[in-house]
Amino acid sequence: MDVYTENYPVGFTAVDESGCLSMAATFNYLQEAAIRHAEALGVGRAPMTEIGQGWVLSRISVVMERRPREEEQITVRTWPRGWEKLFAIRDFDIRDAADIPIVRARSCWLIVDIDKRRPLRPQATMEKLPLNEGRDSLTGGGNGLIAQEAMVKIGERRAVYSDIDFNGHMNNARYVQWIQDITDPDALAKAKTMRLDINYLSEVKLGETLELWTAPIPGADKSAAFEGRRAGGGQAAFRAELRLNPAV
Question: Where do the domains of the chain lie?
Answer without folding.
Answer: 1-143, 144-248
